[in-house]
Amino acid sequence: MTEHSSYAFRSDDKSILTLDSIGWQSIRSPGYSFSGDARPDSGHVIFQYTISGLGYMEVDNRTVPLPPGTGFLVKIPSKHRYYYQERQEPWEILWLNLRGDEANRIWDLVTEREGPVIHREPDSPVITGLRELLDHIATGKTTDKYLLSAMVYQWMLLLVQTSRAIGKDISAHSTTVIQRAKQYLKEHYAQPLTLDMLAEHCGINKYHLCRLFQRSEQTSPLAYLRDRRIEAALSLLRTTELPVQEVGRRCGFDSPSYFGKVFQQYMSMTPKEYRKKKLEFPYHAVYYE
Asked: Is the pTM of this model over 0.90?
């Protein structure tokens, strides 16, 4: 990617999420200072990330250093100031400036979870995604406002996704364990699985596995398994002529009555009723993940 480049876009279209400006900049002047209550670009939101060097931010009646790996999310107008103090090393940053109701909503969501100052590694999806977006623009691949809006929205989803992961406070090893458990449940939902079997597969105590799973997925391993079984049952009911009892058996339910009970809890109707109601539920698959 071309270093130290910046681009601005001007549009009066307020119906979509709009990229106002984006760039990679090396700051050396102590005159670099922006106050959130003294800017003309009202209604905008800003994300700025430190690649190297050091900047500062005044927010919530405190001064926060912004070292490498640190970024901030602010709205215009709001009470804040970010600035550079002259030192030997310049403050190298990536940033983007957005307009639109959805951008404001995402900023509120992330700052409510993490505060205005967030932390992301340089190789995190948020930062690599921002670099890719800037590179896409720098090489002249995209200037259309609608395509840019879609790309920026995709980047904001990365921001939300990583924010939720941080909120779970799950280590890298634990994340690997959870992913291994989920994959095993997806592949073996038709079998009579137990927590002991799953824990043995993951190489972890079943009680610890349940705690990790609940923290990461906000559900239990057995509830996650039940979701996968119902998904499979819904698909078989809609795409095959198998008897209902056989559908339940193929999806891991140990008795027809239990299958009917669980299905009723999910769909508020019996499997036979679901099979008949193709007009109200014209889907070949339904997912609960």
From this structure: no
